[in-house]
Each structure stands twice: as C-alpha cells, then as structure tokens.
Write a structure and sequence with these properties.
By secondary structure, the chain is of the alpha/beta class. The chain folds into two domains: 213 residues, 3-Layer(aba) Sandwich (Rossmann fold), CATH 3.40.50.300; 69 residues, Alpha-Beta Plaits (2-Layer Sandwich). Helix content is 33%, strand content 29%. The chain contains ten helices and 14 strands. The radius of gyration is 22 Å and the shape is elongated. The N and C termini lie far apart (50 Å). Pfam families: ABC_tran (PF00005). Keywords: ATP-binding, Nucleotide-binding. InterPro entries: AAA+_ATPase, ABC_transporter-like_ATP-bd, P-loop_NTPase.
C-alpha cells in the first residue's frame, strides 16, 4: 500500500502555502517532515487528510484518488493539536467515539496502552499533563489500525522520558512493516535517530527528499583550521560554512569527492578533522543563506 501526493496546492487568504507538493510514502518507514515555522507542514497534514480542500493536485492511496474514494481516508490518521474535539472527554469516551470513526479501531488495545502509561479510562483528557496528552494521542493512532499516521510536533515541550516512550512506541509500530509515520517536528535530535527519510519543506515545495544513510555516504562535516584567517576558495565554493570561531571553521561538504578532498589538503590545513553529520547540520545547509557565517 503506497500513498502518493502529486503537485498538491493550497492557498490560504489568497496566499500560496503549498505549491506543487510531491512525495510518496510506502509502509514500514518513519519519515521526518522538516522546515521553519509557518512553512506549511501542518497545512500539508490538513490538506492530505481533507480538513482543507486542496486547490490542485492529487492524493492517491494505491492509485485510488481519495477525492473519488473517500472511504480510503480511514487508512490515514491525523490528530490536529489545535482542534481536538475531545478535550473535555473521558478517555474511555474518546475510545468509544474513535471506534465509530475507524472500523479497525482496537478499543481494548487503546485501554491497555493507557493503563501501561498509568492512566485510567475515567480520567478526562484536559486534566492530563501535556506529556500524557501526547501519549494518549499516540495511543489513539496505534489503536486506530490506520497504516499511515501523521504526527505534528509530538515531542514539543515534552520531557526526556516522555519523548523516549513516544520514540519506542513508533519504533515498535513500524517494526512489522505494516505502518508508516510521517512526523513533523522541530526536535531534530529525535528525528535524526528515528527517521529513515527526511522531507524538507521550502517555498511551498518539497525541496529535498533525503535518506539520511545515503546523505552521510556522500557528504561530510569537517572542522578545519588554516594558517591564516583567510578562507580558501574551495571552502567557500564547495562547502557550506556552519560556524567560524577565530580560525576554527566548521563546514559541511554536500558532495565530498576525491577532488574536493585533494583541494582541501592542498591548502595545508593545520587541523582537518571529520565530525558527526547531524540532521541539524543538514537543516542549516538547506535553510540558511550560503556561508552566512562568512563576514
């Protein structure tokens, strides 16, 4: 079962928010959706799940257009954090309502999950801490049986232990290859360790569709020190400078070829050290103006 979004468009207040968004998902993946605030990540979720009506493009599940086959939307699960209808409901009442919404909803599993969290069905959602509310929403997603789950900022404002529980739930859920999570988050550290792929949203489009393992095979992050403060041309032209502290330069080289390696060596750096390349580094490369640290 594959989910394919093609040239998705959406305007809000006559402003184009989504401009030909195109990507596809297959089962058994955790995919990060990354971009600055206000770039349209939540709008993607709302449009794909038909909370917003698209102004153009198609959303297909196994080549069936969801506009023509609305019953297929049961295979998508998304909770809009800003518009939760059940804030005042008891947890067992929420489960009962979702059993009506999703034919595959497993109420027993939901109750077992919240019990594992130390919660009871008689508790009201709004009485829970932010962390436990997040766990309840993930439990609803898991119990829904929907193969495609969209999570919008699931780690926002949560303590380390709650974040770890959510990560473990997601990892366990995709282990059998029957479910995929698309996660929008500013917590790039969590996404770095969790995601198989990352989609960068920029100017209303998917600007990059990266498999992190593949990126790390062709890109490198270096810490460099040269004999003078002058920055060699190869660094400016082939690298993306992240920081400059005195004569210490940290830079990412997206395409670290033997030629680039040789050109750097020819400048006889005093220090030439490889550093771990993180998702945060790739975010800076994608969204910061090139060599913005260079004065």
């Amino acid at each position: 079962m594959s989910l394919t979004i093609t040239k998705l468009q959406k305007k809000i207040a006559d402003q184009a928010v989504l401009n030909n968004i195109t990507f596809s998902l297959s089962l058994g993946q955790v995919v990060g959706l990354v971009g600055p605030n206000g770039i349209g990540k939540t709008t993607i979720f709302r449009t794909v799940t038909h909370q917003y009506r698209a102004d153009g493009g198609t959303i297909e599940l196994d080549e069936q257009d969801l506009t023509d086959h609305p019953e297929q939307r049961e295979n998508l699960f998304y909770l809009d954090n800003q518009h939760l209808f059940f804030r005042k409901y008891r947890l067992d009442k929420i489960a009962g309502d979702y059993q009506l919404l999703y034919a595959t909803f497993d109420q027993a599993r939901f109750m077992a999950l919240i019990k594992k969290f130390g919660l009871q069905g008689s508790q009201r959602f709004q009485s829970l801490s932010k962390g436990y509310q997040a766990l309840v929403m993930v439990a609803l997603a898991l119990a829904s049986g929907a193969p495609y789950v969209f999570l919008d900022e699931p780690f926002d404002g949560l303590d380390l232990l709650i974040r770890e529980r959510i990560v473990n739930l997601v990892v366990d859920a995709v282990a059998d290859g029957k479910r995929t999570f698309l996660i929008a988050s500013h917590n790039l550290v969590e996404l770095d360790g969790l995601s198989d792929r990352v989609l960068f949203v920029k100017a209303g489009r998917i600007s990059q569709d990266l498999t992190l393992e593949d990126v790390r095979q062709q890109a490198i992050k270096l810490q460099l020190v040269f004999k003078t403060k002058a920055i060699p041309d190869v660094i400016r032209e082939q690298g993306r400078i992240l920081t400059i502290r005195g004569r210490v330069i940290e830079a990412v080289f997206p395409h670290f070829t033997p030629e680039v390696k040789a050109a750097i060596a020819a400048e006889e750096p005093v220090l030439n050290e490889s550093l771990p390349l993180s998702l945060s580094d790739l975010f800076k490369v994608e969204f910061r103006a090139k060599n913005a640290e260079v004065k």
